[in-house]
Design a protein that fits this description.
The chain has 156 residues and is of the alpha+beta class. It is 34% helix and 26% strand. It has one domain: Gcn5-related N-acetyltransferase (GNAT) (Aminopeptidase, 3-Layer(aba) Sandwich). The protein has a five-stranded mixed beta sheet with strand order 1-2-3-4-5, sandwiched between helices.
Length: 156
């Protein structure tokens, strides 16, 4: 990873970095509308960044967010333990292939350990060769089928 890139776990006073991370996600995922058009207000982001069940980690280079990771701590019911789910992970195009994604995962591993989690997990699209290569290098692959179920369907 380039020495000029800082990996930073975001906290309540890091709303500006969180907004930078949202903008970077929008560009990296080619989905700016989702990540930038209706961003939450500062009060919401402070509350989110204060939530012990949310982890945001930014890679900062030259005063800009060049990579980011958002994860959720899931408290389990079958045992007194938790898991961490990496929800979003991206590195802006000009900063890829420099170890930033690996550094973000290492940071979430450290943060997850500090929060007492027993495992970190992530999903990837079968077509995303770069993500599959990264996660294969760092973890154990499980093939599962993912379904989106909309909350309003089936409601009475």
């Amino acid at each position: 990873m380039p020495p000029e890139v800082e990996i930073r776990v975001l906290h309540a006073n890091d709303v500006a970095w969180m907004r930078g991370m949202l903008s970077m996600f929008g560009l990296a995922f080619d989905d700016e509308a989702t990540y930038t058009s209706k961003q939450p207000d500062d009060v919401y982001l402070v509350r989110l960044l204060s939530n012990p069940d949310f982890i945001a980690i930014a890679a900062i280079g030259n005063g800009l967010v060049v990579g980011g990771l958002a994860a959720y701590v899931l408290t389990k019911f079958e045992r007194a333990r938790s898991e961490v789910y990496i929800y979003d992970l991206a590195v802006e195009e000009g900063s890829r292939r420099r170890g930033i994604a690996t550094a973000l995962i290492r940071a979430v591993q450290k943060e997850s350990n500090a929060r007492g989690a027993w495992v970190v997990f992530v999903q990837a699209d079968r077509e995303d060769a770069a993500a599959l290569a990264l996660y294969t290098k760092l973890g154990v692959r499980e093939d599962v089928v993912h379904f989106d179920i909309h909350p309003a369907e089936g409601a009475t």
